[in-house]
């Protein structure tokens, strides 16, 4: 079996990009096919194309739109590493940054002017994301020069504007109806805020975890020691937000969990320190869909993040992450709010992935045996 694919970097993530029709030709369920393509279950993903980390075990599946209101539709898949499973429960903002670029490179959308506007729809969340791809003089730069925190090399500049992002997964910005809630986990009561915008996110105060607000660089080691408790909080939040019936049913990627704290006194250019977890581990940068939730949380009086940022709602929010400072923006467009962030993206390779020609049932049996 041979499957055409493109390997792309979007923001601080890498993903394999497929056109839906190419995957459909396999005749195999994507819940079976994608783990096998990526080499899961295996912590090294040695017999597949996965990168063995949560930020490099991702797939973007592109669809031609069925209506004229969008240019491209796409579905995001977070492919398990140790598990032969696929999480379809949320979108990936960094991964989203490749969609507009791919559409231009493949001729699906013709560039117009110095910035080409591409309207995309994420099918996981039914979220409209307006992408603004740099096309100087009406074409993609042959040598892109845009840079961003967390990536050592340049790429094409891509702005992502999430249109009216509140409640796309649960139906409400505040799924529980409250700006703060209390969750009991690890023998402690935790004050959290649960927000759904871009993706469902539960926010925990750094102070309650005993983290030093003036030593952000030390957060990672301290958080690693509390991952079990944080996972309990996240799973209980999944139930409170109406995503699942029981904590045991909570998906690995949804909701996301963000630890938030006030910036160090010597860091006046930052509004808040953030460390987000991804698939149970500290994220090396920041999930962009999570940053959209953080942005609306900062604009919502009473949330744990608003208690840190406070004051007048600004058009930008500056978040300190392990990869550096990430800035989100807010603007009105045609009477609708856009919450966005600027990323970079580029194509790494265009290739054909080879997979043993076996029926879907045989693949499923092999995976089942590997997980026993």
How would you describe this structure to a colleague?
By secondary structure, the protein is α+β, with helices and mostly antiparallel strands. Helix content is 20%, strand content 34%. It has eight helices and 17 strands. It has helices at residues 20-24, 30-38, 93-105, 219-224, 227-240, 288-298, 306-309, 360-371; strands at 2-10, 13-19, 58-63, 72-79, 86-87, 115-122, 127-134, 156-163, 181-185, 188-197, 199-205, 256-261, 272-278, 281-282, 316-321, 324-333, 336-354. The protein has an eight-stranded mixed beta barrel with strand order 1-2-3-4-6-7-8-17. A hairpin with a 4-residue loop joins strand 6 and strand 7 (127-134). The protein is globular, with a radius of gyration of 20 Å.
List keywords for this structure.
alpha+beta, 8-stranded mixed β-barrel, 372 residues, 20% helix, 8 helices, globular
